[in-house]
Amino acid sequence: MKQYRQFEPVLVSDFEVKEWHHPVHTHNHYEIIYISKGKGIHHVNQSSLAYGAGNVFFIGPDDEHYFDIHQTTRFVYVKFTDEYMHQLDTHYFSGIRQLEYLIKRRDVHFSGFRFSSSDQQTVNHLFRVIMSLKDDPAGNEHLIWMQLISIASILQRNLPEMMDTAGQPKNMQALFCYIHKFIYSPAKLRATVLARQFNSTEDYIGRYFRKHAGITLRDYVQEYRNTLIRKRLDNGEYSLKQIAAEFGLTDESHVSKLLKRPEPKRRKRSVGK
């Protein structure tokens, strides 16, 4: 299968076509795809999604996708790498968090976003601004980033509710979504808080998570947090003090201690997610 590789931190692509000329492919970057006009089907992994003007899709590096165009379509792509997300200073932590949450939410990669009328107007305006900046992505990098985090914020608030009503059946997707959303707030990931959020007990939710994930809840939180921290350290732009503050940790030594712990061992799951 073909893989497209991008070396620039961010690129904007704006084009209109009657036929799709790319094979099924993956890539080494992330893509937020906006449908400016047109109709057709977007094939993502094993899903087929009808698309129309105003729809937005979020695609990750491991996603296989292509478009079946039924009506001449204008696509606007914002393509960015991990380097782009993590080369910026701490003023951008909020935007990075929103993008990381969308990246981790695998279910959003298989479905398009549809918005309320007011959010749709805002999304349309934001992409028009991005389209106006496409000819000089390096010189307009800061401006593109500001539009991107605004779009990410709107996408995030249009995600399905993690828990709609009290007593809703517990499921792993809801648990994963909650953990990924609040990974920067340790107090919200305490067993007592999680149990209350999911109308359960500490013992039950711990057993449920381990049964379906093959790893304890505590170890999963540690593993996911450490993955995000290592990305920031590998980038070289963040100090331990900044990282500790972002993740609600006591101090720099707490960050170092977390990273020195051995990786938790996963057991084979007895039941699928």
UniProtKB/TrEMBL annotation:
Keywords: DNA-binding. GO terms for molecular function: DNA-binding transcription factor activity; sequence-specific DNA binding. The keyword Transferase does not apply. Coiled coil: none annotated. Pfam families: AraC_binding, HTH_18. Residues 173-261 form the HTH araC/xylS-type domain. It comes from the Bacteria. This is AraC family transcriptional regulator. It comes from Pseudobacter ginsenosidimutans.
